Amino acid sequence: MRVLVVTAVPAERDAVTRAFGGEPRIREVPGAELHLAGPFDVLSGGAGPAAAAAATAFALAAAPAPTPYSLVVSAGIGGGFAPAAPVGSLVVATGIVAADLGAETPDGFVPVTGLGFGRDTFLPPGALVRDVAEATGAVRGTVLTVSTVTGSAARTAELLAAHPGAVAEAMEGFGVAEAADRFGVPVLELRAVSNTVGPRDREAWRIGDALAALTDAFGKTAPVVESWTRHDRLDRHRD
């Protein structure tokens, strides 16, 4: 049994596989290629929730039945909400939330669940979140999925008012979670913070530092995930 990791861009994918040294093995799947390193099959699925969902679904569908994947991880860099998640820190999601899926009304934004259909939140396994946070030093909290990266103080305030427990935002987690859920596979989201959510200032971004933090995080996460998936399989077998 292995773990599927979905990133947005090749730089994030390579940061994950670098944790294990050497050249990863490559396996082709429809529309993408998997880079196999340690316990992880890592793919670069594209930016945004739609691309992430499609890539995740293709990879899960292409796996031999029954799927060998016991976990799907949405991983990469993202923006951190100050002061909870400063630049260079790691965050692991206690909840993966589609922050802008819904409707604008005269009274403000209404999430899709408030419209009476769909869902806007996925909850990763609590014990796994705890163990990954302890192993990596990651901050635990809600990670928001947005289709448009936040670039103003006003929008930052709106998001924090609607999601007081938010520690970071990114663009793929909810799409990955949606696809994983349809295959009955649990999901985790792990992000390295490259910038502070707020007024857009590319000169203040630390993408290289965040990618290095992501590499370090996956080196520490691998034994945790392997242990968790082994015990999860035993628990399912007992059930």
UniProtKB/TrEMBL annotation:
<dbReference type="InterPro" id="IPR035994">
    <property type="entry name" value="Nucleoside_phosphorylase_sf"/>
</dbReference>
<comment type="function">
    <text>Catalyzes the hydrolysis of futalosine (FL) to dehypoxanthine futalosine (DHFL) and hypoxanthine, a step in the biosynthesis of menaquinone (MK, vitamin K2).</text>
</comment>
<feature type="domain" description="Nucleoside phosphorylase">
    <location>
        <begin position="42"/>
        <end position="208"/>
    </location>
</feature>
<dbReference type="InterPro" id="IPR019963">
    <property type="entry name" value="FL_hydrolase_MqnB"/>
</dbReference>
<dbReference type="Pfam" id="PF01048">
    <property type="entry name" value="PNP_UDP_1"/>
</dbReference>
<keyword id="KW-0378">Hydrolase</keyword>
<keyword id="KW-0474">Menaquinone biosynthesis</keyword>
<keyword id="KW-0326">Glycosidase</keyword>
<protein>
    <recommendedName>
        <fullName>Futalosine hydrolase</fullName>
        <ecNumber>3.2.2.26</ecNumber>
    </recommendedName>
</protein>
<dbReference type="GO" id="GO:0016798">
    <property type="term" value="F:hydrolase activity, acting on glycosyl bonds"/>
</dbReference>
<comment type="pathway">
    <text>Quinol/quinone metabolism; menaquinone biosynthesis.</text>
</comment>
<dbReference type="InterPro" id="IPR000845">
    <property type="entry name" value="Nucleoside_phosphorylase_d"/>
</dbReference>
<comment type="similarity">
    <text>Belongs to the PNP/UDP phosphorylase family. Futalosine hydrolase subfamily.</text>
</comment>
